[in-house]
Each structure stands twice: as C-alpha cells, then as structure tokens.
Amino acid sequence: MQDQKQLSEQIWFLRRPVQFLADTAVLCAAFFVAYLPAVNVQLGEFYVQTALVQVPFVIFVQFASLFLVGAYSILWRYVSIEDIRVFLKAAVISGAVLIAFRFLLIFTQFNLWQVPISVIFIDTVFAFGGLLGLRVLRRFVYEFGEKNRTFGGRRRLKRKPALLVGAGRIGATLAREMNGRADGELEIRGFVDDDAFKKGGSVSGYKVLGTTGDLARLVNELNIEQVVIAIDNARGAEIRRIMDVCRAIPVKAQIVPSLNEIAHGRVSVSRLRDVQIEDLLGREPVKLDDKNLHDFLTGRTVMVTGAGGSIGAELVRQIINYRPKRLLLVERSEFFLFQIERELAAFEEVDFVPLIADVGDEPRMREIFERFRPEVIFHAAAHKHVPLMESNTTEAIKNNVLATRSLGQLAGEFAAKDFVLISTDKAVNPTSVMGASKRIAEIVVQGLNQTFETNYIAVRFGNVLGSAGSVVPIFREQIQNGDAVTVTDREMTRYFMTIPEASQLVLQAGALGSGGEIFILDMGKPVKILDLAEDMIRLSGLTPYEDIDIVFTGVRKGEKLFEELEITGENLEKTRHPKVFIGKIATYSTDEVHSIVSAFSTAVKGSDEQQIRRLFNQFLPEASIATDEKAIIAEHIEEQENFFAPPTTLGLAEK
C-alpha cells in the first residue's frame, strides 16, 4: 500500500488522472483535426488509418516534451503569462523531434510513422494551444468560483471604492488578487499612473483613468474612499508627494508591502498596510551580487552574534536565502532568541542552532567554536545606545572592545574563513563613549587580521530605522500615548537606512572583503530629525504642533548635530558594488593594538571610568571625549529629566 502511494506521488498522471485524460483528449483531437482536408489544404483526403497508426507515437513525443520542460509542475488554477514560455519550449522540442523522425525513417520499416510536415505544424499549434487554453479555462473557473463564493455562510463584506496608484507589475498583480477574492475589502474602480502613454489603457481589466494630478477629481467623481499606492520600486519622495495629495483631498491612503517583504514570503501583495516612515525615507532596492554571496555563504556554517537584535535577526533572515550548511544563533537574551527561533521554525530546510551565550564569556564561546567550527562570523552583538554608554563606560569597553577581541581570537584559533564586525558611523571623529569604543573595536579587528589567516573586516553604517533604541519606536510610542514628541535640536540630522537594506549590504561587504578593510555603506542623504517627527505625526492622522506638540530638549552628551561617514583625510575606494566603499584608514601595528587593549583591560579591572575616557583621547587623535566626572554626571541627570517630556494637556483619544 505504501509503495503504491509513493509510486502515485512520483508519476504525475496517477495523481491527477482527470487532467491527464483531458490533455490526452486535446492532443488526439488536435492531431486528427490536422489531418482534415478542410483544415490542411495539402491533403486531398482524410487518411484515417494512417492517423490512427501515428497518433500514439505523436502523443508520446508531445508528453515527453511537456515533462522535459516541467509543464506538469505548473498548477492549472495558477497558470500565468510566464508559463506560456514553457509551452512554447515544449512545442518547439516536439515539433523538432517529429520533423527529425520524418527524415530519419525514410528507408526503414517504420515509415508509417513519418508524419507529414504540414500535419506537424498544424498539430503543434492546435495541440499546445489547446493545452494552454485548457489551463486558462481552469483558472477562469477557479477565480470565478472564488469571486462568488461566500465564506462560512457569512454575508459578503461591503467593499470600499478604491483607486490604485501605479499601473505597473505590482498594481496589475494587486488588481488580479483583489478581483479574485470574495472576502476582498476593496472595489477597484481603476488606476492612475503618471506615465502618459498608459492613460486610457486597461490593466487587468481596469482602466487607467488619469495621472496623480487627477486624483482629487477622480476621488470626487467616483466616490473613492481609499487610495492604494502600488508603484514598482517607489522612492520615498514619490510616496511623500502622493501622501500629500491624498491628505489635501482628503482620502485614506495605504500601500502594498515592499518588494523585499513580498520576495521573502513574509506577506502577499494584497496585504495592504498604512504608509510608514520607512516608506517615506525609502531608497532604491538593493541589488546584490547573488553569485558572490552564494560563494560566500552556501554550504558553510555561519555564526551570527546578537542574533535576536534588530540587525542580527535581519542578517539571519537574509542568510537563510543562501542555504548555509548550519546557522548558529548566538544571543544572551532568552526572549529575543526565542522570537527568532520561532520565526525560523517555518524553514525546515535550514539547520539552525539557538545558543544562549554572552560573547564576552570566553569559555562558553570556546565550547561553541569547538563543537560547531563556524566558518563565517557576523559579529552584531554590541552596546549601541549613546547616552546609556556615557554613564556605563566600563560596560561599553567590556562588550564592544574586549568581547570583540576575545571572539575574534577564537575565530582565528579555529581557522574561521571570515569575521565581519558591525560598526557604526559614530566611530568617525568620535565624541561619545559608544562611538569611540566601536572605533577601538575596528582597530582590534584590523590587528587580528595581521595575526591570523582569517579575513577580518568591519562594516560602518548609520542609523537603522526601527531598530531597538532608535528614535522611530520612541516617537511612535510618544504619539500613541498623546505625549509631546521629544527632539534634541531643530538642526539635528542623521543618516538612515532600513534594516533589510543595511543587512543586505553587510552581507555584500562581507563577501567582497579580503581582510583588513573597513567598509563604508552609502547612506544617501541625511534626514532632519525634526522632519522625521513631523512626518510620523502626520502619518498618524494628526497635525504637528496642534494635536501633538514637539519639544526640543537639547543635544545630549556625546551626540553630534551632524554624523560623519568619513574620517578627515581618508579616501574612499570603490568596490564592485555601487553602495559599498572601502575607507582607506591608517592601521595600527600589532604592538600598538596590544598596548591599547592592555591599557583598556587594566582600566576595566579597576572600574576606572575616567581613565577609560582619557585613554580614548590618548589612543584616538580624532576623538574628543569629555573627562570631567562631575559635569558628566550632572549633565546626564539633566538629560534624563528633559528627554522624557511631560504629556500634553489632552490625551490622544480626547484629541
């Protein structure tokens, strides 16, 4: 019984006998039609006997061609335009085979199988056209049934009239999905698109009614209740412009998920959501050198430290696409490790190992290296919060410097191939303990590169939208609570990337590195934090300074008004990737690195925070770290009082 089940799983026509019989009927009918004199003018009469002899051979060749090109892996109900190419390939192969047999069988006893060339051409067109038509009919019946089916006897939802902005690939896909769902909430009335050539045309059965300049008129004429932004690779400026138009009308606007979310299977194109700040700051999608990354990651044991954090977790999500042999998730937070482990449970083909460990715990990390022998290490575990590190200087050195040195030495001892340190733009001309500690970590990694065969590199980039501790979740919480949004200074600017973009470029930099480089990612244009706060308030449906106030608290210790990505005097060298550069930064000798680490280790053992600050200024000529202990403590207390501003008079619900 079990053997029969396995056989039916392997042989297509045993699993879908009705589809097999339908295909056989279409192929037979097409062949006999090709022999009819009324269709084939080359024949004077209908050679029934000849056709009966030849039809099994012809159908065998055609079925073989279909199996060869994978036509039977296509589900009938989901056949699409892309699948036409598969049937064209099968048609060409079967036609070529039949023509070849036509000439090869001339002087053999199988000359009855010599199919006339005119019959071959006519049969090929009718046969494969009929097979494709059969599948299109099946899809039509399926979608018609889905569209008219009610779920669980419930009444069909009242749909909102909607316009789609963007008559491209994403818009067409969304229109098809929404049209084919009985539980869809939107009734699509048409498209708008700024491509003048599309105006008046039709996409997925819906008219392109005008451009975004016509939105106000169309919303009024068609009683539109919702606008959906469905533009392929939409840039932040374009989304912002459309949102401004919708806000002025006013009409509710939503957006399709990003291509990155769709591509990784996290959501479908029809899972609409509100426009988020990440959309307004969005840039062009990252194009990766997949071959380079497959060579770097596929079939290897990869370790990610800080695997439950914002960057670490996204690195894990990106790495699994390149099928590593094993993925080691190192995280000291039990809760964060549980979250990423639970997310990965759906990927059965990935061998991942959750490991609770502190990267500064050398015996525990040595045990992990001895057991699993990681070949590629992404070191994302670090203390990154600038104000907190100002008052926890010793911990910043322990985690960001000494733990990095310990982990890097283990990578070298166990002959790992690559070690990638996640650094920060705050390591450039550092004014904060956090930034200075990451600069020292870069120096340590470059020193290890001179000692071991492992390729050690560092990757620098700016702020990541939505990461733990960033301004975006803080602003979001303040807005939801009806509190004033706290901004340190009107002129404060920062470079921002989305978490997926940063993680993808870190992987690309790791694959490009040969050892000793400090890679710098293209962060685009800096963003004013005040603009960010105002945008987030508007996206919440509120008005800045009226519904939600903005309070300026003053620049905190260690912060800069403007972040830098280059050290003064350094040159940037281009790589094969347009968004990844190499910073030409002077390296320290191994003796100098040893002296630096020894001095910081001694200061940490004595918990001498003032000495740690002095050492930063001593070993980093470009650094300017405050060393007045009383002033630091007083300023830190004042910052905490100012930053958490009291709520405005009215709560959010009352507003």
Task: Please specify the SSE layout and strand pairing.
Blueprint: H1 2-10, H2 12-15, H3 17-35, H4 48-69, H5 84-104, H6 117-148, E1 160-165, H7 169-179, E2 186-192, E3 202-203, E4 206-210, H8 215-221, E5 226-229, H9 236-248, E6 252-255, H10 259-263, E7 273-274, H11 277-280, H12 290-297, E8 301-305, H13 310-319, E9 326-331, H14 334-344, E10 352-356, H15 362-372, E11 376-379, H16 386-390, H17 393-413, E12 418-422, H18 433-449, E13 455-460, E14 463-464, H19 471-480, E15 485-487, E16 493-494, E17 496-497, H20 499-512, E18 518-521, E19 527-528, H21 529-539, E20 550-552, E21 571-574, E22 580-584, H22 590-605, H23 609-619, H24 629-643
- Poorly predicted parts: 1-14, 150-154, 263-267, 637-655
CATH class of the largest domain: Alpha Beta
Question: How far apart lie the N and C ends?
Answer: 69 Å
What is the strand tally? 22
- Identify the CATH architecture of the largest domain: 3-Layer(aba) Sandwich
Write down the Rg.
32 Å
**Considering DSSP H and I runs of 4 or more, what fraction of the residues is helical?**
40-55%
Keyphrases for this structure?
13% strand, 7-stranded mixed sheet, single chain, 655 residues, Rossmann fold, alpha/beta, 22 strands
